[in-house]
């Protein structure tokens, strides 16, 4: 492994978030193109040797992540602080924001059929959703959208990688709109 590759590995290991090629280039005083080539080589090396970690492009940057097939081993590790899973209400709210953004709280509540103040507060606190502007309407309500943290948490490069909604959900949505 090259010296730059080792430095990239250390930076990615130590970072709590995904890092872009440009950020890594600035930190390591290396051209972004060279950094991107070294990242590709590093990821390929993990793949070749069947490492327990993988280098993934998520949320507009690069991140070292454990392989999903090792989730049960990690779950058995004692003493690790784990963040509580999102509630069903928070996940439903997050899904609506992800697919409909930008969206207001009133639109979220209309689509879900229930209040979502608590779920929205949780998503804002966890950095999965953020205020992205104000709607040009009476009262100028806040518009919400997803964040890089959302993309990283779900292993997505961008919103284009969101799965297509199920056909039944689309039919139900159309019936509700009529």
Structure notes:
With 178 residues, this protein is an alpha+beta fold. The protein folds into 2 domains: 3-76, Winged helix-like DNA-binding domain superfamily/Winged helix DNA-binding domain (Arc Repressor Mutant, subunit A); 88-177, Winged helix-like DNA-binding domain superfamily/Winged helix DNA-binding domain (Arc Repressor Mutant, subunit A). Helix content is 51%, strand content 14%. It is built from 9 helices and 5 strands, in the order αααββααβααββαα. The strands form 2 sheets. It has a 3-stranded antiparallel sheet. Strands 1-2 form a two-stranded antiparallel sheet. Helix 2 crosses helix 3. The protein is elongated, with a radius of gyration of 20 Å. The model has no long low-confidence stretch (mean pLDDT 83).
- Count the beta strands: 5
Q: State the CATH superfamily name of the largest domain.
A: Winged helix-like DNA-binding domain superfamily/Winged helix DNA-binding domain
Termini separation (Å)?
60 Å
What would you report as the Rg, rounded to the nearest angstrom? 20 Å
Number of helices: 9
Percentage of helical residues?
A: 40-55%
Q: Write out the strand line-up for the largest beta sheet, numbering strands in chain order.
A: 3-5-4
Q: Give the oligomeric state of the chains in this entry, treating copies of one chain as homo and distinct chains as hetero.
A: single chain
**Which whole number gives the mean pLDDT?**
83
What characterizes the major β-sheet? 3 strands, antiparallel
Cα shape: elongated
Give the strand content: 5-15%
Second CATH tier, the architecture of the largest domain: Orthogonal Bundle
- Count of discrete domains: 2
CATH class of the largest domain reads Mainly Alpha
Structural class: alpha+beta
């Amino acid at each position: 492994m090259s010296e730059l590759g080792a430095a990239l590995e250390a930076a990615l290991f130590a970072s709590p978030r995904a890092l872009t090629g440009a950020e890594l280039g600035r930190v390591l005083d290396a051209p972004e193109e060279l950094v991107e080539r070294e990242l590709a080589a590093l990821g390929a090396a993990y793949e070749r040797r069947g490492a327990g970690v993988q280098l993934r492009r998520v949320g507009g940057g690069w991140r070292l992540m454990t392989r999903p097939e090792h989730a049960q081993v990690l779950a058995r590790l004692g003493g690790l602080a784990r963040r509580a899973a999102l509630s069903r209400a928070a996940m439903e709210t997050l899904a609506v924001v992800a697919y409909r953004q930008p969206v207001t709280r009133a639109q979220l509540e209309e689509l879900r059929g229930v209040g979502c103040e608590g779920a929205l507060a949780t998503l804002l606190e966890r950095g999965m959703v953020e205020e992205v502007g104000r709607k040009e309407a009476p009262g100028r309500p806040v518009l919400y959208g997803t964040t890089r943290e959302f993309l990283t948490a779900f292993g997505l490069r961008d919103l284009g990688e969101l799965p297509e909604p199920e056909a039944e959900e689309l039919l139900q949505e159309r019936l509700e709109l009529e």
